[in-house]
Automatic annotation (TrEMBL):
Pathway(s) the chain acts in: Cofactor biosynthesis; riboflavin biosynthesis; riboflavin from 2-hydroxy-3-oxobutyl phosphate and 5-amino-6-(D-ribitylamino)uracil: step 2/2
GO biological process: riboflavin biosynthetic process
Protein name: Riboflavin synthase
InterPro entries: ATP_synth_asu-like_sf, Lumazine-bd, Lumazine-bd_dom, Riboflavin_synthase-like_b-brl
A GO MF term: riboflavin synthase activity
Organism classification: Bacteria, Pseudomonadati, Pseudomonadota, Betaproteobacteria, Nitrosomonadales
Length: 198
């Protein structure tokens, strides 16, 4: 589990393909890895990945074909938002994030509004219905609050701190982003559908 509060922005330093899978070397930059062990989870752009090797430069993870299929992927040179797994004693500054991407959204617009930026994203239809005004959504691993919803599009205001401490500042119209809906919405749908199917 994660909080969606980004701890560092790293970079995909190397991609070693293995059939449809791949091993990635992540340059962790300022992320403190002193308490990270093999087998620990680190969210990379909102994708929960398992550390399989540690190095002075960062850490390595294995990425399956299924993960590549349902995310924006990890081309070499990509900047990635990094967050170590939540510990029970940690503050929950964002919201509960599983690190399981629900779909890929497309940036419709990204424009300044005063000191902030308004980010408008089109979500895939099968997950758009779970996104609600003033609810939480995870974009590339970042916990954010939805301001407005119109059909399958939703908007978010990004404050300067978020832009300075995540990779969201590199987005532009047409960019693709990993989306994870609020897990509470998923559970609510399951409860409703289960009751209706009885």
């Amino acid at each position: 589990m994660f909080t969606g509060i980004i701890q560092a922005v790293g970079k995909v330093a190397e991609v070693v393909p293995s059939n449809d899978d791949a091993r990635l070397l992540i340059d962790a930059t300022t992320l403190d890895l002193s308490d990270v062990a093999l087998g620990d989870s680190i969210a990379c752009n909102g994708v929960c990945l398992t550390v399989v090797a540690l190095s002075p430069q960062g850490f390595s993870v294995d990425v399956s074909a299924e993960t590549f299929r349902c995310t924006v992927g990890f081309p070499a040179g990509t900047l990635v938002n990094l967050e170590k797994a939540l510990r029970l004693a940690d503050r929950l500054g964002g919201h509960l994030v599983s690190g399981h991407v629900d779909g890929v959204g497309t940036v419709v617009s990204f424009a300044p509004v005063g000191d902030c930026f308004e980010l408008v994203i089109r979500a895939p239809g099968d997950i758009a219905r779970f996104i609600v005004t003033k609810g939480s959504v995870t974009v590339n691993g970042v916990s954010l609050t939805v301001n407005r919803v119109a059909g399958d599009e939703f908007s978010i205001n990004l404050i300067p701190h978020t832009l300075a401490n995540t990779n969201l500042h590199i987005l532009a119209t047409g960019s693709h982003v990993n989306l994870e809906i609020d897990m509470m919405a998923r559970y609510a749908e399951r409860i409703l559908n289960y009751q209706e199917s009885k």
